[in-house]
Amino acid sequence: MKVSWVRAHAGNIGNERADQLAKDATQHGQPYSHIKLPKPHIKGLLRKRMLDEWQTSWKNGDTGRKIYNNMPSVSLRPPNWIREDVIFFSQHGPFPASLKRFHLSDSDYCS
């Protein structure tokens, strides 16, 4: 790509077209572009947007706050947690309180 100064309104077709596109963009608020982006680039942009939205939802959500305290950032990669970590942080395991909550025990006290 080469960038150079061009005299305005001198009949240069490319410059006149650029002026028209800039004017359209300011009047309509929409960028006008025929530039084709590579698919991997578009996928990267979409992935970043998805992760940003997911992060905002996770940060401002009402559920999973105990896990949020240990994992404040979202990721497409699974954490390297062992089974016991998952049970402990999710509080879904063979605990008396969990068993009672799911009607698998009559008492939530340890015996």
From TrEMBL:
**SUPFAM superfamilies in alphabetical order:** Ribonuclease H-like
One of the record's GO molecular function terms: nucleic acid binding
Domain RNase H type-1: residue ranges: 1-27
Q: Which Gene3D superfamilies match?
A: Ribonuclease H-like superfamily/Ribonuclease H
The protein's superkingdom reads Eukaryota
Q: Name one Pfam family in it.
A: RNase_H
PROSITE patterns of this UniProt entry?
Answer: RNASE_H_1
Mind telling me which InterPro entries this protein's record contains?
A: RNaseH-like_sf, RNaseH_domain, RNaseH_sf
Coiled coil ranges (UniProt) are none
Q: What is this protein called?
A: RNase H type-1 domain-containing protein
Please give the organism. Answer: Araneus ventricosus
